[in-house]
Amino acid sequence: MAEGERRSQPDSSEDIPPATQNFIIPKKEIHTVPDMGKWKRSQAYADYIGFILTLNEGVKGKKLSFEYRVSEEAENLVATVVPTHLAAAVPEVAVYLKESVGNSTRIDYGTGHEAAFAAFLCCLCKIGVLRVDDQIAIVFKVFNRYLEVMRKLQKTYRMEPAGSQGVWGLDDFQFLPFIWGSSQLIDHPCLEPRHFVDEKAVNESHKEYMFLECVLFITEMKTGPFAEHSNQLWNISAVPSWSKVNQGLIRMYKAECLEKFPVIQHFKFGSLLPIHPVTSC
Q: For the domain that residue 221 is a member of, what is the CATH number?
């Protein structure tokens, strides 16, 4: 399944939508629980999970300080946000960015908002502003910076966790950095899953690994024994290898986030991430 999903991720200029494409403002399509079937069969689902897995593969075994190359298109993004010839895509792509920083009324934030930011990055790849060559920079530079901003907001405004499962959930706010962070640690010569509950190991290596940075943030935000306030993570520390942790977290992400109606009912669909069924090659 993973190989098929990864193939859905655009990897050449031939997959980039033409400037004449009819972009549309994304809207909600998942209104009832039975609608979840449309989501799981959709092109949007295939493209989104393919994007997540492509980045997961790209950061495997690499530190946050890894020297990555950034394509010319990514530099253009920093300088001009979106090139002029793709200006028509801006209203559609911007919807996902707006949805990614939490709800201003409820002052909450959760994995659905995180998914919106990942969808924003996926859309930038689909229109060619970011390229597959940028996959390491997408995670280490852009997404990691997004995490820093959201953690500051969580601390400053004490944002409520949206859809949190409490002690039975992986984390109150994030999921993707645990997936990509565990991929970073695959085949690490010293650090094993059992070490992330070791305060010394976390303090020494958190600046290089997203997973450990997530653990450090949890310990800063919560009090009491780790096994009590983060039981799911505590159980994961008993898994023998990071590759098994990574595979398990991908399955868990699909089941606990992408296949949960309370999360996906807020996801929006447009021309770049469409609700229509996935087209077979």
A: 1.20.120.1150
The token duo for 233 is 């993570």
Q: What is the count of structural domains for the chain?
A: 1
Task: State the residue range of the domain holding 35.
Answer: 30-264
Query: Which string of DSSP letters, residue by residue, matches the chain?
Result: -HHHHHHTS--SGGGSPPTT------EE---SGGGHHHHHTBHHHHHHHHHHHHHHHHTTT--TT------HHHHHHHHHSS-GGGGGGHHHHHHHHHGGG-BTTTTEE-HHHHHHHHHHHHHHHHTTSS-GGGHHHIIIIIIHHHHHHHHHHHHHH-PEETT--GGGSS-SS-SHHHHHHHHHTTT-SS--GGGGG-HHHHHHHTTT-HHHHHHHHHHHH--S-HHHHTHHHHHHTTSS-HHHHHHHHHHHHIIIIIT-HHHHTT-EE-SSS-SSBPPP-
Q: Which two tokens stand for residue 16?
A: 């980039």
Q: pTM for the whole thing?
A: 0.88
Residue among 11, 8, 13 at smallest CA distance from 50 = 8
CA terminus-to-terminus distance, the chain: 15
- Residue 15 in any domain: the answer is no
Per DSSP (E only), the strands in 182-229 are: none
Q: What is the pLDDT of residues 57-111, one digit of tens each?
A: 999 999 999 988 777 765 665 557 688 888 888 889 989 988 888 877 777 888 9
Residue 21 falls within a domain, yes or no?
no
19 inside domain: no
Residue 53 lies in a domain: yes
